[in-house]
Amino acid sequence: MVPVFMPLWAILLVLGPVPGQSVSRQFRDTVTLSCHKPGFLLYQIKWYHGGKLLSHNTNTFQVNESGNFKCQADNLLPSKSVHLEFSNAQLILQAPFEVFERDSVVLKCQEKKRTSRSNITFYRNGQHLPHQGTEYHIQNAGLQHNGDYRCNNRYASSNKVKIQVQELFPRPVLLARPSQPTDGSPVNLTCDTQLSPQKSNVQLKFCFLKDNLISRQVCSQDPEYHIPAIRKEDSTSYRCKAGTSNIWKTSRPFQIPVQIPVSQPTLTLRTPRTQAVVGDMIELHCEAPRGSPPILYQFYHENIILGRHTAPSGGGASFNLSLTAEHSGNYLCEATNGQEAQRSVTITLNVIVPVSHPGLTLRMPRTQAVVGDTVELHCEVLTGSPPIQYQFYHENVNLGNSSALSGGGASFNLFLTEEHSGNYFCEASNVAGAQQSEAVSIKVIVPVSRPVLTLRAPKAQVVVGDVVELLCEALSGSPPILYQFYYENITLGNSSAPFGGGAFFNFSVTREHSGNYSCEANNRLWAQQSDKVTLFVTGLTGDRSGSVAAGLTGVLLSMVVLAAGALLFHCWLSRKAGRMPASDPTRRPSDSEPQEPTYSNVSGWVELQPVYSNVNSLGGDVVYSEVRRCTKERPYAVASVPLVPENKGSPVIYTEVKVACTSASKPNCQPPQ
């Protein structure tokens, strides 16, 4: 702690809304702080050191330690904070915490150890200041005295002190209430300024001037001046002055415009067509027939301000608006020249929204459209003012129309036939125009009808070894159609008709192929089965034996021998008589091949004669003789190419003949029992 060299140093803390902080550096070990508010008698005083509440509660307070100090009284705002520093430096420059214009300021340079040889020098912003002694005096402080000050002696340099000269009060501003009075109305003028809180004990005087002439004989301490009734001719320049005995400040000139109130304005909507459409540019024009300029016009939509425009010389004002759907509603305008505002009559604007690009939706009971289904065509726009007319098209042919009186979409129901495949679109329109949707394609699937199964064989009686063709065909149905063939519900195979029509399936007949056949047609939407068709394969099974077969075999062999003898005799007679050449030129080479014997009818036989041929379709040890009845038209039998009998239901008799088994022909063969 620094010893005390002089009486107690007093520091005044002033209560009020003063920002910032003051700094004081001292050699002394005790400083007296005083809490003061001009014009107030303080009671409940609180002291704070570094934010901590102290127990002391009088208006003066002695401190002997460094730190930040402030006070607060009653319900007033806290004082400005003061920072105290007890220094061990050789030199300390002390200055007032705050300096105001026209103040007298004393800067003191104190030495810790003063000697007779000390020579004190003062500096401002690094420049030497002329002076005598340890104090530097400033008279009538002004802005030119702002800067950083310090002092030196031969041995040391002091701390820096910043001097910032503050205004005692700012330049006054002349206010008029009302600012734009009407003719004959009263007006109050106020010379508005404010003393610094640290100088609140200073008394200011005020003077009011009109056209630079003092409008009062004597200035007073009243900052207001009352005009009972202002006239149009009083629209001129006014000023005010505020000051003390040694400082005066004058306000800027203020023009008081005396107004004639505006009349009710008229709002006009100017549109490019009879009905306003989204995207149109419209003009809102507002005009008051009477009123002192300048006139401020404001435009409103549903009581929300759109914009404003000032007519400085009177007349009307306009506001342009690019229309959207949200601009439908009520419009009005307001005119004012600083007096009572006047509003126009409300005008209603209905903005037509053109229909947007419609969307066409197909609502079907299943994924694919099928003949007989009812399909709903739904057309809808996202935006558009009602009423909206919807039209539905199939391949540019109008199907029908529907109207949406309150907006939204519309539908059209269609009972599908095969002819309804194709492209569909819809059109939406209102008074602002029409829009078409994108085309949507529908492929109407025709379910397959019940197919018909046809068996195609080379003859009426199907025998083992014949090639049979199964034809399955659905008379109607959308391709591709998959056909499947069944024998006794067992799948034989399948075939596809990619472009419609029927399908074939061929197979070589065996003994096991007798039975029921059917087919199925499927076009992925529907499957249908045909009626069953029964196939009888003619032929004897390989396990028959017995006396009946042996007897029948003997009879057949006897008949073959007799027929051969008769044929040889007939050929000899014919050749001898010259009625038949030795060889038949029409005979095909294959006919002369000695594969199987050929038998023809002899003269005198009945009209219907059997024809015999051997059959060995199984490739085994059993030979079948086929007997057919054939009709001969000529009276005399002639040896000729064997006729292939047509399938006319002639009876056929098969006889099983077993080949004799010998060890030479077939080593593993066993003779019949």
UniProtKB/TrEMBL annotation:
Region of interest (Disordered), residue spans: 578-600
Pfam families named among the record's database cross-references: Ig_2 (PF13895)
Broad class of the protein's primary localization: membrane
Coiled-coil spans in chain: none
Localization per record: Cell membrane
Highest rank taxon of the organism: Eukaryota
The keyword Isomerase appears for this protein: no
Any one annotated GO CC term: external side of plasma membrane
Entry's Gene Ontology molecular function annotations: transmembrane signaling receptor activity
Protein's name according to its UniProt entry: Fc receptor-like protein 5 isoform X2
The organism of origin for this protein: Dipodomys ordii (Ord's kangaroo rat)
Lineage: Eukaryota, Metazoa, Chordata, Craniata, Vertebrata
